Amino acid sequence: MPDLSGKVAWVTGAGSGIGEAAALALAREGAAVALSGRRREPLQAVADRITEAGGKALVAPGDLGEPEAAAKIAARIAKEFGRLDILVNNAGANLVERSWAKLTPERIKFMIDANLNSAFYCAAAALDIMRPQKDGLLIHTASWAGRFVGIVPGPAYIAAKHGVVAMSYSINMEEFQHGIRSTALCPAEVATPILNLRPKPVSAEERAQMIQPEHMADLILYVAKLPATVCLNEIVISPTWNRGYAHLAGLGPSRT
Ligand SMILES: NC(=O)c1ccc[n+]([C@@H]2O[C@H](COP(=O)([O-])OP(=O)(O)OC[C@H]3O[C@@H](n4cnc5c(N)ncnc54)[C@H](OP(=O)(O)O)[C@@H]3O)[C@@H](O)[C@H]2O)c1
Question: What is the pTM of this model?
Answer without folding.
Answer: 0.98
